[in-house]
Amino acid sequence: MSQQDNVKAAEFLRAESELVLDEVRLVLLDLPLKAELTRRQKRKRKAEKFKTFGNPIELNGVPIDVKIDGNHAWLAENTSIIRKLDLETGKSLKIFKGHSGPVTALAFCDMHPGSGDKKVLITGSWDMVCATVREPLILLTV
């Protein structure tokens, strides 16, 4: 880590400690509503200050399941899509649509049993459909 990263990490930990102390004071001392508002303001300032800490990857949905495959992440999202993400650049390489509910499960299996190729992605969703993604990378209901 660089010196700048160390400073940012220290600032983050200090801000987190202050929030914990504020919560303890609020619970133990039963401070009035003004203290609660101050705490919320501090949390908001902290969120704004550290929103780019660590180069976060921004997504439209919330990942429910994640599988890492080399330099790629496969995300099952609450937006009913499956996303293949490049972990170096943070860019979406492919987006698969087909489920009508949040995708909750991902699993890789071999196209040819025992080959270890892991070319088939099986997905499950709240729409009660299991699907497979395989070459030529289309979503098929099974």
From TrEMBL:
Stated name of the protein: Uncharacterized protein
Organism name: Hericium alpestre
InterPro entries, alphabetized: Quinoprotein_ADH-like_sf (IPR011047), WD40/YVTN_repeat-like_dom_sf (IPR015943), WD40_rpt (IPR001680)
